[in-house]
Design a protein that fits this description.
CATH architecture of the domain at 116-201: Roll
CATH class of the domain at 116-201: Mainly Beta
Structural class: alpha+beta
Strand order of the largest sheet: 5-4-6-7
Number of helices: 9
CATH topology of the domain at 116-201: Pdz3 Domain
Low-confidence stretches: none
Mean pLDDT: 86
CATH superfamily of the domain at 116-201: PDZ domain
Order of helices and strands: HEEHEHEEHEEEEEHHHHH
Helix content: 40-55%
Strand content: 15-25%
Number of strands: 10
Length: 345
Protein backbone atom coordinates (compact mmCIF):
# COMPACT_ATOMS: atom_id res chain seq x y z
CA UNK A 1 0.00 0.00 0.00
CA UNK A 2 2.78 2.44 0.94
CA UNK A 3 4.54 1.83 -2.41
CA UNK A 4 1.28 2.59 -4.23
CA UNK A 5 0.85 5.81 -2.23
CA UNK A 6 4.41 6.86 -3.09
CA UNK A 7 3.88 6.17 -6.81
CA UNK A 8 0.55 8.05 -6.78
CA UNK A 9 2.20 11.09 -5.15
CA UNK A 10 5.05 11.06 -7.66
CA UNK A 11 2.60 10.63 -10.56
CA UNK A 12 0.38 13.46 -9.29
CA UNK A 13 3.32 15.89 -9.19
CA UNK A 14 4.34 14.94 -12.75
CA UNK A 15 0.73 15.20 -13.90
CA UNK A 16 0.41 18.69 -12.39
CA UNK A 17 3.54 19.73 -14.28
CA UNK A 18 2.12 18.48 -17.58
CA UNK A 19 -1.21 20.12 -16.75
CA UNK A 20 0.58 23.46 -16.84
CA UNK A 21 1.75 22.79 -20.39
CA UNK A 22 -1.69 21.48 -21.37
CA UNK A 23 -3.80 24.36 -20.03
CA UNK A 24 -1.61 27.09 -21.49
CA UNK A 25 -1.37 25.23 -24.81
CA UNK A 26 -5.16 25.08 -24.98
CA UNK A 27 -5.37 28.77 -24.06
CA UNK A 28 -3.02 29.55 -26.94
CA UNK A 29 -5.16 27.39 -29.28
CA UNK A 30 -2.45 24.77 -29.81
CA UNK A 31 -3.58 21.31 -30.87
CA UNK A 32 -2.74 18.75 -28.18
CA UNK A 33 -2.59 15.24 -29.65
CA UNK A 34 -2.02 13.33 -26.41
CA UNK A 35 -1.95 14.06 -22.70
CA UNK A 36 -0.20 11.12 -21.08
CA UNK A 37 0.76 9.94 -17.64
CA UNK A 38 3.75 7.61 -17.56
CA UNK A 39 6.28 6.48 -20.13
CA UNK A 40 6.81 3.38 -22.24
CA UNK A 41 4.07 1.24 -23.78
CA UNK A 42 0.54 2.64 -23.61
CA UNK A 43 -1.82 0.67 -21.36
CA UNK A 44 -5.03 2.41 -22.40
CA UNK A 45 -6.36 5.75 -23.54
CA UNK A 46 -9.59 7.66 -24.02
CA UNK A 47 -10.02 10.14 -26.85
CA UNK A 48 -12.04 13.23 -26.05
CA UNK A 49 -12.27 15.73 -28.86
CA UNK A 50 -8.90 15.99 -30.59
CA UNK A 51 -6.87 14.88 -27.54
CA UNK A 52 -6.18 11.35 -26.33
CA UNK A 53 -5.81 10.99 -22.56
CA UNK A 54 -3.67 7.94 -21.84
CA UNK A 55 -1.84 6.01 -19.14
CA UNK A 56 1.47 4.33 -19.94
CA UNK A 57 3.27 1.45 -18.28
CA UNK A 58 6.01 3.26 -16.35
CA UNK A 59 4.46 5.73 -13.85
CA UNK A 60 7.60 7.87 -13.68
CA UNK A 61 6.91 10.65 -16.14
CA UNK A 62 4.38 12.09 -18.50
CA UNK A 63 3.98 14.34 -21.51
CA UNK A 64 1.73 16.83 -23.23
CA UNK A 65 2.29 15.89 -26.89
CA UNK A 66 1.46 18.87 -29.09
CA UNK A 67 1.11 19.02 -32.86
CA UNK A 68 4.31 20.32 -34.48
CA UNK A 69 6.28 20.23 -31.24
CA UNK A 70 9.39 18.49 -32.60
CA UNK A 71 8.67 18.41 -36.31
CA UNK A 72 7.40 20.68 -39.04
CA UNK A 73 3.61 20.89 -39.44
CA UNK A 74 1.34 22.80 -41.82
CA UNK A 75 -1.40 22.97 -39.19
CA UNK A 76 -1.87 26.61 -38.17
CA UNK A 77 -2.58 25.37 -34.63
CA UNK A 78 0.76 23.54 -34.41
CA UNK A 79 3.05 24.47 -31.52
CA UNK A 80 5.90 25.40 -33.86
CA UNK A 81 3.72 27.82 -35.82
CA UNK A 82 2.74 29.89 -32.79
CA UNK A 83 4.41 33.20 -31.88
CA UNK A 84 7.58 33.00 -29.78
CA UNK A 85 5.94 34.45 -26.66
CA UNK A 86 3.18 31.83 -26.74
CA UNK A 87 5.67 28.96 -27.13
CA UNK A 88 7.68 30.39 -24.25
CA UNK A 89 4.62 30.57 -21.98
CA UNK A 90 3.55 27.02 -22.86
CA UNK A 91 6.96 25.58 -22.02
CA UNK A 92 7.48 27.72 -18.90
CA UNK A 93 4.02 26.78 -17.57
CA UNK A 94 5.16 23.25 -16.59
CA UNK A 95 7.85 24.26 -14.06
CA UNK A 96 5.73 27.23 -12.96
CA UNK A 97 2.87 24.89 -12.07
CA UNK A 98 5.30 22.86 -9.97
CA UNK A 99 6.16 25.98 -7.99
CA UNK A 100 2.44 26.74 -7.61
CA UNK A 101 1.82 23.22 -6.31
CA UNK A 102 4.78 23.44 -3.92
CA UNK A 103 3.46 26.74 -2.58
CA UNK A 104 -0.14 25.48 -2.11
CA UNK A 105 1.02 22.38 -0.22
CA UNK A 106 3.46 24.45 1.87
CA UNK A 107 0.66 26.82 2.91
CA UNK A 108 -1.58 23.91 3.91
CA UNK A 109 1.29 22.23 5.78
CA UNK A 110 2.28 25.34 7.74
CA UNK A 111 -1.34 26.31 8.36
CA UNK A 112 -2.08 22.90 9.86
CA UNK A 113 1.17 21.96 11.60
CA UNK A 114 3.04 25.23 12.03
CA UNK A 115 6.83 25.61 11.90
CA UNK A 116 9.86 25.96 14.16
CA UNK A 117 11.09 29.57 14.29
CA UNK A 118 14.88 30.25 14.32
CA UNK A 119 14.82 30.81 18.08
CA UNK A 120 17.54 29.60 20.42
CA UNK A 121 16.38 27.67 23.48
CA UNK A 122 19.86 26.59 24.59
CA UNK A 123 23.49 27.39 23.78
CA UNK A 124 26.00 24.54 24.11
CA UNK A 125 28.66 25.28 26.69
CA UNK A 126 32.05 26.06 25.16
CA UNK A 127 30.62 26.24 21.64
CA UNK A 128 31.40 28.91 19.02
CA UNK A 129 27.91 30.35 19.61
CA UNK A 130 28.63 30.86 23.32
CA UNK A 131 32.01 32.46 22.57
CA UNK A 132 30.27 34.84 20.14
CA UNK A 133 27.83 35.95 22.85
CA UNK A 134 24.64 34.23 21.65
CA UNK A 135 22.19 33.36 24.42
CA UNK A 136 19.02 31.36 24.99
CA UNK A 137 16.03 33.43 23.90
CA UNK A 138 17.81 35.05 20.97
CA UNK A 139 16.22 34.86 17.52
CA UNK A 140 18.59 34.33 14.60
CA UNK A 141 17.73 36.71 11.75
CA UNK A 142 20.34 36.01 9.05
CA UNK A 143 23.61 34.26 8.17
CA UNK A 144 25.88 36.23 5.81
CA UNK A 145 22.85 38.09 4.53
CA UNK A 146 20.83 34.88 4.02
CA UNK A 147 17.51 35.58 5.77
CA UNK A 148 16.35 32.91 8.22
CA UNK A 149 12.64 32.16 8.65
CA UNK A 150 12.77 28.57 9.98
CA UNK A 151 15.11 26.83 12.41
CA UNK A 152 15.91 24.12 9.85
CA UNK A 153 17.56 26.76 7.65
CA UNK A 154 20.33 27.05 10.24
CA UNK A 155 21.56 23.48 9.77
CA UNK A 156 20.97 23.57 6.01
CA UNK A 157 23.05 26.74 5.58
CA UNK A 158 25.95 25.44 7.66
CA UNK A 159 25.80 22.12 5.77
CA UNK A 160 26.17 23.81 2.38
CA UNK A 161 28.81 26.28 3.68
CA UNK A 162 30.97 24.00 5.86
CA UNK A 163 33.43 25.83 8.11
CA UNK A 164 32.57 29.22 6.64
CA UNK A 165 32.63 32.16 9.06
CA UNK A 166 29.10 33.44 9.65
CA UNK A 167 28.23 37.11 10.04
CA UNK A 168 25.11 36.66 12.16
CA UNK A 169 22.33 39.14 12.74
CA UNK A 170 20.18 38.20 15.72
CA UNK A 171 17.44 39.76 17.79
CA UNK A 172 17.43 40.04 21.59
CA UNK A 173 14.59 41.72 23.48
CA UNK A 174 13.41 43.42 20.30
CA UNK A 175 16.84 44.84 19.48
CA UNK A 176 18.95 43.65 16.53
CA UNK A 177 22.58 42.81 17.21
CA UNK A 178 25.47 41.40 15.16
CA UNK A 179 28.25 38.92 15.80
CA UNK A 180 30.54 36.54 13.91
CA UNK A 181 30.64 32.79 14.47
CA UNK A 182 32.93 30.21 12.86
CA UNK A 183 31.36 26.73 13.04
CA UNK A 184 33.52 23.91 14.40
CA UNK A 185 33.65 20.35 13.07
CA UNK A 186 31.78 17.88 15.26
CA UNK A 187 33.66 14.57 14.96
CA UNK A 188 30.64 12.48 15.89
CA UNK A 189 28.28 13.84 13.23
CA UNK A 190 30.90 14.97 10.72
CA UNK A 191 29.11 18.33 10.50
CA UNK A 192 30.22 21.89 11.17
CA UNK A 193 28.10 23.21 14.06
CA UNK A 194 27.77 26.54 15.85
CA UNK A 195 26.36 24.99 19.05
CA UNK A 196 22.76 26.11 19.40
CA UNK A 197 19.59 24.14 20.13
CA UNK A 198 16.21 25.27 18.85
CA UNK A 199 12.89 25.55 20.60
CA UNK A 200 10.35 22.73 20.56
CA UNK A 201 7.41 25.14 20.28
CA UNK A 202 5.60 25.20 16.95
CA UNK A 203 4.45 28.56 15.54
CA UNK A 204 1.42 28.92 13.27
CA UNK A 205 0.67 32.63 12.97
CA UNK A 206 -2.30 34.39 11.41
CA UNK A 207 -3.58 33.66 7.87
CA UNK A 208 -1.40 36.39 6.31
CA UNK A 209 1.70 34.99 8.02
CA UNK A 210 0.78 31.48 6.88
CA UNK A 211 0.57 32.66 3.26
CA UNK A 212 3.89 34.47 3.63
CA UNK A 213 5.61 31.50 5.27
CA UNK A 214 4.31 29.21 2.54
CA UNK A 215 6.40 31.28 0.15
CA UNK A 216 9.43 31.07 2.48
CA UNK A 217 9.01 27.27 2.68
CA UNK A 218 8.99 27.01 -1.12
CA UNK A 219 12.04 29.30 -1.27
CA UNK A 220 13.80 27.07 1.28
CA UNK A 221 13.15 23.94 -0.81
CA UNK A 222 14.35 25.65 -4.01
CA UNK A 223 17.47 26.79 -2.15
CA UNK A 224 18.19 23.19 -1.12
CA UNK A 225 17.85 22.02 -4.74
CA UNK A 226 20.19 24.72 -6.09
CA UNK A 227 22.79 24.09 -3.38
CA UNK A 228 22.61 20.34 -4.01
CA UNK A 229 23.25 20.99 -7.71
CA UNK A 230 26.21 23.18 -6.76
CA UNK A 231 27.64 20.32 -4.70
CA UNK A 232 27.08 17.95 -7.64
CA UNK A 233 28.79 20.20 -10.21
CA UNK A 234 31.71 20.98 -7.89
CA UNK A 235 32.28 17.29 -7.16
CA UNK A 236 31.34 17.42 -3.47
CA UNK A 237 28.72 14.77 -4.18
CA UNK A 238 28.62 12.24 -7.02
CA UNK A 239 25.93 10.90 -9.35
CA UNK A 240 25.68 7.92 -7.01
CA UNK A 241 24.36 10.27 -4.33
CA UNK A 242 21.46 11.25 -6.60
CA UNK A 243 18.08 9.53 -6.42
CA UNK A 244 15.81 8.71 -9.33
CA UNK A 245 12.20 7.49 -9.28
CA UNK A 246 13.12 4.19 -7.57
CA UNK A 247 15.05 5.99 -4.83
CA UNK A 248 12.32 8.59 -4.37
CA UNK A 249 9.64 5.94 -3.97
CA UNK A 250 11.87 4.05 -1.52
CA UNK A 251 12.48 7.18 0.58
CA UNK A 252 8.76 8.00 0.63
CA UNK A 253 8.05 4.41 1.65
CA UNK A 254 10.54 4.67 4.53
CA UNK A 255 9.02 8.03 5.52
CA UNK A 256 5.62 6.33 5.64
CA UNK A 257 6.93 3.58 7.97
CA UNK A 258 8.76 5.97 10.30
CA UNK A 259 5.85 8.41 10.49
CA UNK A 260 3.34 5.64 11.19
CA UNK A 261 5.56 4.35 14.00
CA UNK A 262 6.03 7.83 15.49
CA UNK A 263 2.50 9.19 15.43
CA UNK A 264 0.13 7.41 13.08
CA UNK A 265 -1.76 8.67 10.04
CA UNK A 266 -1.53 12.36 11.02
CA UNK A 267 2.29 12.34 10.89
CA UNK A 268 2.27 10.23 7.74
CA UNK A 269 0.19 12.88 5.95
CA UNK A 270 2.31 15.78 7.24
CA UNK A 271 5.63 14.18 6.32
CA UNK A 272 4.44 13.10 2.89
CA UNK A 273 3.13 16.62 2.26
CA UNK A 274 6.55 17.99 3.23
CA UNK A 275 8.11 15.54 0.79
CA UNK A 276 5.69 16.71 -1.92
CA UNK A 277 6.82 20.32 -1.46
CA UNK A 278 10.45 19.28 -1.89
CA UNK A 279 9.70 17.00 -4.86
CA UNK A 280 7.53 19.53 -6.69
CA UNK A 281 10.05 22.36 -6.18
CA UNK A 282 12.81 19.98 -7.26
CA UNK A 283 10.97 19.06 -10.46
CA UNK A 284 10.36 22.74 -11.21
CA UNK A 285 14.02 23.69 -10.78
CA UNK A 286 15.42 20.66 -12.64
CA UNK A 287 13.15 21.27 -15.61
CA UNK A 288 14.41 24.85 -15.88
CA UNK A 289 18.02 23.73 -16.31
CA UNK A 290 19.25 24.79 -19.79
CA UNK A 291 19.71 21.23 -21.04
CA UNK A 292 18.23 19.90 -24.32
CA UNK A 293 14.88 18.09 -23.94
CA UNK A 294 14.20 19.80 -20.61
CA UNK A 295 11.91 22.83 -20.50
CA UNK A 296 14.93 24.98 -19.69
CA UNK A 297 16.67 23.74 -22.84
CA UNK A 298 13.69 24.76 -24.95
CA UNK A 299 13.55 28.15 -23.24
CA UNK A 300 17.25 28.64 -24.04
CA UNK A 301 16.52 27.94 -27.72
CA UNK A 302 13.66 30.47 -27.57
CA UNK A 303 16.04 33.08 -26.14
CA UNK A 304 18.53 32.38 -28.94
CA UNK A 305 15.68 32.65 -31.44
CA UNK A 306 14.65 35.98 -29.98
CA UNK A 307 18.23 37.31 -30.18
CA UNK A 308 18.75 36.05 -33.75
CA UNK A 309 15.23 37.10 -34.77
CA UNK A 310 15.18 33.93 -36.78
CA UNK A 311 13.41 30.70 -36.01
CA UNK A 312 15.46 27.53 -35.74
CA UNK A 313 14.60 24.73 -38.10
CA UNK A 314 12.11 22.32 -36.44
CA UNK A 315 14.23 19.40 -37.67
CA UNK A 316 17.39 20.77 -36.04
CA UNK A 317 15.54 21.62 -32.83
CA UNK A 318 14.02 18.13 -32.83
CA UNK A 319 17.46 16.52 -33.23
CA UNK A 320 18.90 18.64 -30.39
CA UNK A 321 16.04 17.61 -28.11
CA UNK A 322 16.38 13.97 -29.19
CA UNK A 323 20.07 13.92 -28.26
CA UNK A 324 19.26 15.58 -24.95
CA UNK A 325 16.49 13.09 -24.26
CA UNK A 326 18.81 10.17 -25.05
CA UNK A 327 21.42 11.51 -22.61
CA UNK A 328 18.74 12.00 -19.95
CA UNK A 329 17.55 8.42 -20.46
CA UNK A 330 21.11 7.15 -20.00
CA UNK A 331 21.44 9.23 -16.81
CA UNK A 332 18.07 7.94 -15.59
CA UNK A 333 19.16 4.32 -16.15
CA UNK A 334 22.47 4.94 -14.32
CA UNK A 335 20.68 6.56 -11.37
CA UNK A 336 17.99 3.85 -11.32
CA UNK A 337 20.59 1.07 -11.26
CA UNK A 338 22.44 2.95 -8.51
CA UNK A 339 19.17 3.23 -6.54
CA UNK A 340 18.50 -0.48 -6.89
CA UNK A 341 21.96 -1.43 -5.63
CA UNK A 342 21.87 1.25 -2.91
CA UNK A 343 18.50 0.34 -1.45
CA UNK A 344 17.95 -3.27 -2.43
CA UNK A 345 21.47 -4.59 -2.88
Amino acid sequence: MKIIIAILIFSFIVLFHELGHFLVAKKCNVKVNEFMLGLGPKLFGIKKGETEYSIHLLPFGGACAMEGEDEASDDERAFGNKPLWQRFLIVFAGPFFNFILAYIIAVILIGVAGYYAPDISEVVEGSPAEEAGLEAGDTLVSFNGFKLHFYKEISVYTYFHPGEALDIVYERNGEKKETTVTPELDEESGRYLIGVIGTSDLVKGNPIQVLENGFHEMRYQIYVVFQSLRFLFTGKVSVRDMSGPVGIVKVMSDTYDESMADGGVYYVVLNLMNFMVLLSANLGVMNLLPFPALDGGRILLFIIEGIRRKKMSPEIEGKINFVGLALLMVLMVVVMVSDIFKFFG
